[in-house]
Design brief:
The complex is a heteropentamer of chains A (about 100), B (about 475), C (about 475), D (about 650) and E (about 180).
Chain B lengths: L1 H11 L2 H45 L6 E4 L4 E4 H27 L5 H20 L3 H19 L6 H32 L4 H4 L7 H18 L7 H8 L2 H25 L5 H24 L4 H22 L2 H32 L10 H4 L1 H15 L5 H14 L4 H27 L13 H16 L4 H10 L4
Chain C lengths: L12 H31 L13 E4 L4 E3 L5 H20 L7 H20 L3 H12 L1 H9 L4 H28 L11 H7 L4 H18 L8 H8 L2 H26 L1 H27 L4 H22 L2 H32 L10 H4 L1 H14 L6 H13 L5 H29 L16 H19 L2 H15 L1
Helix pairs in contact in C: 1-2, 2-3, 2-10, 2-13, 2-18, 2-19, 3-4, 3-5, 3-10, 4-6, 5-6, 6-8, 6-9, 8-10, 8-11, 9-10, 9-12, 10-11, 10-12, 10-13, 11-12, 11-17, 12-13, 12-16, 12-17, 13-15, 13-16, 13-18, 13-19, 15-17, 15-18, 16-18
Chain D lengths: L4 H17 L5 H28 L13 E10 L9 E8 L1 H24 L6 H19 L4 H19 L6 H32 L4 H5 L19 E2 L2 E2 H16 L8 H4 L5 H10 L4 H8 L1 H7 L1 H22 L5 H22 L8 H31 L15 H15 L5 H16 L1 H26 L15 H16 L5 H4 L13 H22 L5 H8 L1 H8 L4 H46 L8 H21 L1
Antiparallel strand pairs in D: 1-2, 3-4
Helix pairs in contact in D: 1-2, 1-4, 2-3, 2-4, 3-4, 3-10, 3-15, 3-19, 4-5, 5-6, 6-8, 8-11, 8-13, 10-15, 13-14, 13-18, 14-15, 14-17, 14-18, 15-16, 15-17, 15-19, 16-18, 16-19, 17-18, 17-21, 18-21, 22-23
The chains are: A mainly alpha (about 100), B mainly alpha (about 475), C mainly alpha (about 475), D mainly alpha (about 650), E mainly alpha (about 180).
Chain lengths: ~100, ~475, ~475, ~650, ~180
């Protein structure tokens, strides 16, 4: 186990910003949601890695990761429900179709 | 048995949460068993049950100024209790205003409405009272995810769906950013408990970056510029009671927990976050005001107004002193009555005529004098005009900010009040001065709205004069 | 002591009017009694700076905000002025038909703010009442005004609020430097006693406060709300606004800015002397070429109010007494002016002086009153304007350096220019042949208008003929302040 | 308390009563009331004069006349720490010149009151007229008895206003309104100098009081101690005293219509003729002379240079006005320019006067001339009033040969003409003679100038006289008739004064140092002036006794000069240009434009900018949730960068 | 450091999978493919957890994410859209601004992170054995410090509310049905 923690940090940071990039460029609402999952996973990697390498005697990061997964699941459920609702109203899930409210 | 004992002792200071959960369960069960016929009584039951909870909340007091349970996971103090009570009052008022809407347009889902709203309230409680970033995170999500569902409640309307989608996506995104910040906090501080983290002060850039990521997440909840862009769209699309709830309760809870975290966890970085907030406040107030000027839809208008109000609230936060905290909480308290009064009027009129445009309000005074007067009071109070309560809250919040010698900031904020007064007066002008060929017909408000509006009006008029409220806040507030 | 609010639950307009009139007269009576009693107490040797002080009622204890009121000679004078103008204003707006009740309620709120401001000796309550007095203007102008009322109302409100933005920062500064030992206070007397603000801070907060009040006092270049606002406002509101509200500015400059930050006032006076001296001449010149009666008067107010601030900045007893006298005098005569303009406008439906003429023949009472007002404005002895202006000039002449001399003499020229524009109006509107045939059928003043006009004229002439008591009362207050 | 307060109180009460209640009275009653009130005042004034000049009341122990302050109430307190004595007081000061003025004012005013009952008969606003007359009398009396310079200023202003009100009596006539405005503004302009002068004077002397200002210290030949403090102060080459006194004189010059402030007086003739007689001939216009006389010791001791200026301005004005008077055709205007010229005479006399005993001859002569001039000029005006009353025109062309129709007017007018021309033994001869003597002793140039003016005076007065009463008769629309009794009786009374006032021993009563002295007619000068006057009369006789073409030929020979003179040297036009084009069109319009467009425009610009920025930035809120997220993350990155790396 | 040690190889392999598939999942034009790629990413992350010997977490990751969420995604995709029919074209401009933001973010975050000296815990290696279920259970059910009963309870409310909320939102409007 001699991989420096920075390596993991690079990984998670990259993943995080890939998620961000996805959020910004995807046209599909579900695609955007997936990008958010990437973001959350990147965060989770952070928590777990910090726990493992820096503070291994407590399970703080571990538990946090666990809860993030739970919350992400709940969030996804609601988000998908909402997207279906959008679909019902707009007949598609293109992100450009939710640009009515502006200015 | 020890565990069970500890378990109970842990919950023993969580009276408000426990009673709220009881109400929650009660509402859930009532909704389950009441059936189609009982729907009529369901709302009354829910409101009554919650009202009891509100009353109960005011009886509480902790022995010492600060207490925690679950080994620091949960913290409380008189101030925490007070903030929760304020949120309770606001929620009750929202219930009053939502009654008519639930009765007529949301009949099938009124039980869910109450349940979801109360669960978000519980989330806010946890946000406020958490002593650990984990509980804080769960509270935050509890306060925002069901909220997204509520924003989508008006399922026939495209706007509602769009608003909900924007809200949930932005919320998820911001919580991602915030979590990234929290993860870095964990990585650098080595702990997620507030009181321990406060001591792990290293003055490292990474810690500051973590703090900024965290602040961005909070900025989303409080809708600070540049994290505010969802606000107007969501406020406009959401059902009006939900908008009211979002604009006051969600914001108030977030501000207080933000303040609490800043003065505990990040207290050693006070200078840094004060500098950051300085700019954020300036931008927030200015952008909120500038964007509000051109709005024609009242809900959207109030959204931008609430953005700039958020900037004003932060003037109390930025000081980080006990006086600042007292001023902040006082501001939230006053803002609650004022903004809810405005939304009460809007929802009242929207429910019965479907009109929310500023032009629709032309000549309102000639047809609905009482509503127009209350709306005017709300606008004046928001604009900080005496004798209305808004003046006092604004004065105190500025006073708190100047305590830290931030005269320039206060001056900019004050110049901005001129702009804000301008658009608040636009509403007054529409109602009183302009004449309309097609004014809103005289409206007979339902009893619940009347009660709600009466409470708000009384609040707006008398709260400034009742100094014990502020005195009490001042006596229980704390700072860096 | 003074706060009387009427809740009127009557639909009948006459009833409302009667109640208003009774209330206003009661206030007038109270203030006259107050004045007499004040003079008597001074005569009897009461030496306290402020009389009738209540025990401060604690309000926000942690911030040391109290509700404390009291009066000295200056505020007694201002109260007297306010009540006179309010009372006559009620009579002047007797004929108002649209939304009478609301009108009078706002009117009362305005006067409440004014009274409260003058009697406060706590900065917080003072500021509170100050803002209370500002906001009813918006609706009063916007709803009952004429012409470009919405624009004017908005402009007026926003500019005045802009002023209060400056002011508020100044007040915070004063508060945080109100005491050496950390017992911060809003009480003006205590602040003045502690005198704890260091000079470099004063240099920051004095201009803020002064400009803040100066906006309300129509100081150049922050005066442009005044012409538009006055032109659009209904009669009684113009009266009260020009007559009393603008005095809040001068009073505030004096009571807060200069009294609490004397060193900075001393050092920075020159800037403001330039500005106010400019407004004196500038307002007068501007008034010369206006064609709207109300604009003429509004610019004349700019000029006269400029003289108030100008005199205050001279910082000696005589000039300051003159400033306060000028406030009283200008308040009365400008109220008279606006009342008369309102009455004339109510009949001719124009305020353009080119469209009127020979009104003296048609409505002699109004004409004579107008001439008297004009004479008061141009400083005719025997009317109040003269008293004030002479006191100001004599006092201002105390400074012997070239800079002050230049501005005092420039100020003196304004009395000639004033004569020019007053006579221009009198000549065009009242004298000469009748311009419009329709005007010949117009009637003269009716009873309530006469009450309003004569009430003010009596006050103007009273002060003009026997100014000594008032001047002594004021200078008594000034002396206390100058200590 | 003394009866003398009634001198001021009665006219003031009359003003209030007639002014406030006049509309309820019949015109006749108000006229009678006013006259009755004034009669009492006149009686009191005569009584005072009697007491002052002929009993011990006015005698000081050393034989000089006493200066008596009858009462002095503080009216306004202008004191401050360094100047504790600055108080405006209202009081009554009796000394020879004020007592003399009391007599002059009440006499002329009384006559005008009576005269007006006939002249103004049937005019609309009769009550108003009497009210203002009372106001004027009050103000003028207050002015002459002022105990301090500020009291004088107060009444000075009141006088100006009543003058304004009387000129604008026919307020529906645009020319009258214009004239009134002009009169008021021009005098007001001059008053501003007066005020500044007062301010300077009071600043250095720390007092307003005449007694303190003029008290003479005979040892040091210095006016008084109050001036010792301001000795060294210089400003722009003159001592501040000189400047102050010059400014005060300018104030007086405005009221007394000295060049260049003379332009208002001819126009002021738009007012009713009796009012002109009272205000613009006899009393108000000499206020300037009175002012200089009142402060004479100060002028003499502290600012002799200013006294020279006064003398030369007087000399120039008298010549200037006399030349113009020769060319005017409106009889009231001729009289107006004559008034200007005569007042300038008085100014010259003051300007050349010395101090003490016979040196103060100019002073005495000036006051004397003031007195006699008041009488004969009032006569002239009232007679002119009768004539206008008869022919309904002011123009000479409408007149001629009137001696057949109006005998009484003819005689009184004639007497007054001889008096003003300075023919022995009428009053004008004596007073004018003393002025010439004083001028001769002091300054030869002025002497010759004034002698020439005396000739011109005789010429234009008799031009007027012949033109009206001889000459060829024009066609009258209806036959002229003699005026009613209440108009000619005052004329006759004033003629009596005109004839005999030259024999009063003025030098016993009025002198610079309050000690009486004797004067003698200096025959060479007297004969010289008489000869000059006779030449003037003769010329007038030749030119105007009968209609002929000599005047036209003379006018044609020096055409340009004549045109200039008959247009009053275009001074009015210059003023008009300055006020209309430069002040109104230039400064005022520019400032008003600046105010509307720059200052107000700036405020509007702020609003406009805010609105525009708001409108223009709406694209930021594009409605795209991805753009929101982009802003969000960029915000975070920016803040991090700013906070950490900048 | 031995570049080719087993640990390193596993780590770099996993990291590569995560990043490559993550990137593919946000750039692919077909939404169902994106879901597949996401599945791979989540799977690889589970592998990472295993690699760090957090078996429990890996299991949760697999069951909740891979088994739950991704399936939910797929259902949703199938529900709202005909399979693979539409392709999405992303404008270059959008990619550019997104790319700039992301790269700037990466740069700032990494520079800051590398300035910080992480102190690896000496005991990390020794503790590198699997976390046993007992410990996890204790942590979740205890009230002591570093025990998380309260968040656990709170999350139950959250889940309940979310279920109700999503049901309410997703179900067809009753009135509409009638």
């Amino acid at each position: 186990m001699n991989i420096p923690v920075e390596y993991f940090l690079v990984l998670s940071t990259l993943l995080f910003f890939i998620g961000v990039f996805g959020f910004i460029v995807r046209k599909n609402l579900i695609g955007i949601l997936m990008s958010i999952e990437l973001v959350l996973n990147a965060v989770n990697i952070n928590f777990v890695v910090f726990n493992r390498f820096l503070y291994p005697d407590k399970l703080e990061g571990f538990i946090y990761g666990l809860f993030v997964i739970i919350v992400a699941a709940a969030e996804t459920a609601v988000a998908i429900a909402i997207i279906i609702n959008v679909y019902r109203n707009m007949k598609n899930i293109d992100v450009n179709s939710i640009k009515e409210l502006k200015n | 048995m020890d565990i069970i004992k500890e378990f109970y002792s842990g919950f023993s200071i969580m009276n408000q949460e426990v009673s709220l959960v009881l109400v929650l369960v009660f509402v859930l069960l009532a909704d389950l068993f009441c059936g189609e016929k009982g729907k009529k009584y369901l709302q009354l039951l829910a409101i009554a049950a919650f009202a009891l909870n509100v009353v109960y909340g005011f009886t509480l007091k902790v022995d010492s100024t600060y207490q925690d349970s679950f080994a620091g996971m949960y913290v409380t103090s008189d101030m925490h209790i007070l903030v929760k009570n304020i949120l309770n009052v606001g929620t009750l008022l929202v219930f009053f205003f939502a009654h008519y809407w639930n009765e007529h347009e949301n009949r099938s889902q009124s039980g869910e409405f109450y349940f979801l709203m109360l669960s978000t309230l519980l989330g806010m409680y946890l946000m406020i009272s958490s002593g650990n970033f984990l509980l804080f995170y769960i509270g935050l999500e509890t306060a925002s995810i069901p909220m997204a569902a509520m924003v989508a409640f008006n399922k026939k309307a495209h706007e509602s769906a769009e608003a909900a989608a924007k809200y949930i996506l932005t919320a998820a995104f911001s919580s991602g950013v915030m979590l990234f910040g929290i993860s870095l906090i964990y990585g650098t501080y080595g702990t997620l408990y507030y009181n321990e983290a406060a001591n792990a002060f290293l003055a490292e850039p990474l810690q500051i970056m973590a703090m900024i990521f965290f602040m961005a997440g909070m900025g989303f909840k409080i809708s600070l510029v540049p994290f505010h862009l969802w606000t107007a769209d969501t406020y406009q699309g959401a059902p009006t009671p939900v908008t009211a709830y979002l604009s006051v309760m969600s914001k108030g809870a977030a501000v207080f927990s933000f303040l609490y975290i800043l003065i505990t966890v990040f207290r050693n970085y006070a200078e840094t976050w004060q500098n950051i907030l300085w700019w954020i406040i300036v931008v927030t107030i200015t952008v909120g005001n500038l964007f509000a000027i051109r709005q024609k839809n009242l809900k959207r208008f109030l959204a931008f107004s609430s953005i700039s109000q958020a900037g004003y609230i932060l003037l109390g936060v930025i000081a980080g002193t006990p006086q600042g905290m007292a001023a902040t909480v006082f501001y939230i308290f006053i803002y609650l009555f004022t903004n809810l009064a405005a939304f009460g009027i809007i929802s009242n009129i929207e429910n019965q005529t479907g009109k929310v445009g500023m032009d629709d309000y032309n000549g309102l005074y000639s047809t609905n004098p009482k509503l127009a007067v209350i709306m005017m009071l709300a606008m004046f109070s928001l604009g900080g005009i005496p004798f209305f309560a808004g003046f006092f809250s604004k004065f105190f919040i500025f006073l708190a900010a100047t305590q830290k010698e931030m005269y320039l900031l206060v001056f900019i904020a004050l110049l901005n009040t001129i702009i804000s007064l301008f658009y608040y007066l636009l509403v007054v002008k529409a109602m009183f001065i302009k004449e309309s060929t097609n004014p809103i017909k005289p409206i007979k408000s339902d009893a619940m709205s009347v009660i709600g509006l009466a409470i708000c009006t009384i609040g707006m008029i008398v709260l400034g004069f009742i100094s014990p409220i502020y005195e009490y806040m001042s006596s229980i507030s704390f700072g860096i | 002591m003074m706060a009387i609010i009427f809740c009127i639950n009557g639909e009948k307009k006459n009833l409302i009017r009667m109640v208003m009139a009774a209330g206003a007269l009661a206030m007038l009576g109270t203030s006259v009694y107050l004045t007499l009693d004040f003079l008597a107490q001074r005569e009897a040797g009461a030496t306290a700076e402020f009389l009738y002080c209540n025990d401060p009622i604690p309000w926000y204890e942690t911030l040391n905000i109290n509700y404390s009121v009291g009066v000295d000679g200056i505020s007694v004078a201002m109260l007297l002025l306010s009540t006179i103008v309010v009372t006559t204003g009620v009579f002047a707006s007797w004929g108002l038909e649209k939304l009478t009740k609301e009108y009078f309620l706002w009117f009362l709120m305005l006067s409440l703010g004014v009274f409260g401001f003058f009697i406060s000796i706590d900065l917080f309550t003072m500021f509170l009442f100050y803002e209370v007095a500002l906001i009813p203007m918006y609706l009063l102008i916007g709803l009952w005004g004429t012409g470009r009322k919405e624009y004017s109302a908005m402009k007026l409100t926003l500019m005045l609020m802009g002023g209060s933005a400056f002011l508020m920062v100044g007040i915070f500064g004063i508060y945080y430097y109100s005491s050496m030992d950390g017992n911060l206070t809003f009480n003006i007397l205590e602040i003045a006693k502690n005198h704890a603000m260091p000079i470099d801070k004063q240099m920051i907060f004095f201009p803020l406060t002064f400009v803040g009040f100066g906006v309300l006092g129509a100081m150049f270049p922050f005066h442009t709300w005044s012409p538009d606002g006055h032109a659009s406002a209904p009669t009684a509101v113009s009266m009260l606004h020009a007559g009393v509200l603008m005095k809040l500015g001068g009073y505030g400059c004096f009571r807060i800015a200069m009294y609490l930050m004397p060193e900075a006032a001393d050092q920075l006076a020159w800037i403001f002397i330039i500005l106010t001296g400019t407004s004196v001449v500038y307002g007068a010149f501007s008034a010369c070429v206006q064609n709207d009666l109300k604009y003429i008067n509004a610019y004349s107010s700019v000029s006269h109010c400029g003289l108030v601030l100008f005199a205050l900045l001279m910082m000696n007893k005589t000039a300051m007494t003159g400033a306060i006298l000028q406030m009283v005098s200008h308040g009365l005569m400008t109220a008279l002016f606006f009342a008369l303009i309102g009455m004339i406008y109510g009949r001719t439906h124009t305020r353009d002086i080119r469209e009127m003429g020979g009104l003296m023949k048609i409505m002699p009472v109004l004409g004579v009153c107008y001439v008297i007002a004009g004479m008061a404005s141009l400083g005719l002895p025997g009317l109040s304007g003269f008293v004030a202006e002479m006191t100001v000039f004599v006092g201002a002449f105390e400074h012997s350096d070239l800079f002050h001399r230049f501005f005092v003499i420039a100020g003196c020229t304004s009395i000639v220019i004033t004569a020019v524009y007053i006579l221009r109006v009198v000549g065009k509107v009242l004298f000469g042949p009748v311009q419009d045939k329709h005007h010949e059928q117009l009637t003269d003043a009716c009873w309530y208008e006469k009450v309003a006009a004569f009430g003010l004229i009596i006050a103007i002439a009273g002060i003009g003929l026997a100014p000594l008591w008032l001047s002594n009362m004021i200078s008594d207050g000034i002396m206390n302040m100058l200590k | 308390m003394d009866y003398t307060i009634l001198l001021l109180a009665i006219p003031f009460l009359m003003f209030l009563i007639i002014g406030l209640l006049g509309y309820k009275m019949t015109p006749k009653f108000s006229g009678l009331l006013g006259s009755a009130g004034l009669a009492v005042v006149t009686a009191l004034a005569y009584y005072t004069a009697y007491r002052y000049f002929f009993t011990e009341f006015g005698q000081a122990a050393d034989g000089a006349r006493e200066t008596i302050v009858m009462f002095n109430y503080t009216w306004l307190d202008l004191s401050n720490a360094s100047r504790p004595d600055l108080m405006i007081q209202i009081g009554m000061l009796l000394d020879p010149i004020s007592v003399m003025m009391l007599v002059v004012i009440t006499t002329v005013s009384m006559m005008v009151h009576i005269y007006s009952m006939g002249y103004m008969h049937g005019e609309e606003g009769f009550q108003r007229y009497y009210a203002v007359l009372s106001l004027f009398t009050f103000a003028m009396l207050g002015l002459v008895v002022a105990t301090n310079i500020f009291q004088m200023y107060i009444f000075w202003e009141l006088v100006g206003v009543s003058s304004f009100l009387l000129i604008s009596f026919y307020f529906t006539k645009p020319s009258a309104v214009r004239a009134a405005k002009k009169a008021f503004i021009v005098t007001r302009f001059a008053d501003m100098f007066f005020l500044i002068g007062i301010l300077i004077l009071s600043y250095y002397t720390k007092t307003f009081d005449f007694l303190k200002l003029t008290a003479v210290d005979p040892e040091a030949q210095h006016a008084t101690l109050v001036f010792s403090t301001m000795g060294g102060k210089m400003f722009m080459g003159l001592s501040v005293t000189s400047i102050a006194l010059l400014l005060i004189f300018l104030g007086g010059a405005g009221k007394s219509a000295m060049f260049p402030f003379h332009i208002w007086l001819p126009d002021a003739m738009e007012g009713p003729t009796p009012a002109s007689a009272l205000i613009h001939a006899a009393t108000m216009v000499v206020a300037g002379v009175f002012l200089v006389a009142r402060l004479f010791p100060v002028y003499f001791f502290e600012a002799p240079d200013v006294l020279h200026i006064i003398a030369y301005i007087g000399g120039f004005t008298s010549l200037f006005a006399a030349i113009i008077a020769c060319t005017q055709t409106d009889i009231k205007r001729v009289l107006a320019f004559s008034t200007i010229s005569q007042i300038a005479y008085m100014m010259v006399a003051l300007g050349v006067s010395g101090f003490g005993g016979h040196d103060g001859l100019g002073f005495t002569a000036s006051m004397w001339h003031l007195f006699t001039h008041a009488m004969f000029k009032a006569t002239l005006f009232m007679a002119a009033g009768c004539i206008i009353h008869a022919v309904h025109s002011n123009e000479m062309d409408a007149m001629g040969g009137l001696r057949h129709y109006m005998k009484k007017t003819y005689y009184t007018f004639g007497i007054a003409c001889f008096a003003i021309a300075g023919i022995f033994p009428l009053s004008g001869f004596f007073s004018k003679d003393e002025i010439l003597v004083a001028a001769f002793e002091a300054d030869k140039i002025l002497y010759f100038c004034q002698t020439f003016v005396a000739g011109l005076t005789a010429f234009y007065m008799f031009r007027l006289f012949f033109r009206i009463f001889f000459y060829n008769e024009p066609k009258f629309e209806h036959t002229p008739h003699e005026a009613p009794a209440n108009m000619w009786v005052p004329l006759c009374i004033l003629s009596v004064f005109t004839i005999f006032s030259g024999w009063f021993p003025f030098s016993k009563w009025i002198s610079t140092d309050l000690i009486g002295y004797d004067i003698h007619t200096v025959w060479p000068i007297a004969i010289g002036s008489t000869v000059v006057a006779l030449i003037g009369i003769g010329t007038a006789y030749v030119l105007y006794y009968k209609k002929n073409d000599i005047p036209d030929r003379i006018a044609n020979t020096c055409k340009s000069f004549y045109t200039w003179a008959s247009h009053r040297f275009y001074i009015d036009e210059v003023y008009l240009f300055i006020t209309n084009k430069i002040i109104f069109g230039g400064i005022c319009a520019a400032i008003a434009w600046f105010d509307r467009h720059i200052i107000d425009g700036f405020m509007d610009l702020l609003g406009w900018t805010t609105n525009t920025v708001s409108e223009e930035t709406k694209e930021i809120q594009s409605g795209s949730v991805q753009q929101y997220a982009w802003v969000f993350i960029m915000g975070v990155i920016t803040i991090v960068t700013l906070a950490l790396y900048l | 450091m031995d570049l080719l040690s087993a640990n390193n190889i596993i780590f770099f392999l996993l990291a590569t999978i995560i990043l490559v598939f993550g990137f593919l999942s946000v750039t692919t034009t077909k939404i169902l493919r994106a879901a597949t790629y996401l599945f791979f990413v989540l799977f690889a992350i589970a592998g990472l957890y295993l690699f760090l010997s957090y078996e429990f977490l890996a299991a949760v990751q697999l069951s909740v994410y891979a088994g739950g969420i991704v399936v939910l995604f797929v259902f949703a995709i199938l529900l709202v859209k005909n399979l693979g029919e539409e392709t999405e074209k992303v404008s270059f401009q959008k990619k550019l601004v997104g790319g700039i933001a992301s790269l700037a973010g990466v740069a700032v975050a990494l520079i800051t992170a590398f300035n910080y000296g992480f102190i690896q815990n000496e005991t990390a290696d020794e503790a590198a054995n699997a976390v046993d279920m007992q410990a996890v259970g204790n942590a979740l059910m205890g009230v002591e410090k570093y025990q998380y009963l309260l968040p656990f309870e709170a999350s139950s409310i959250l889940l309940l509310a979310c279920i109700i909320g999503s049901v309410v939102v997703a179900q067809k409007n009753k009135e509409e049905k009638r």
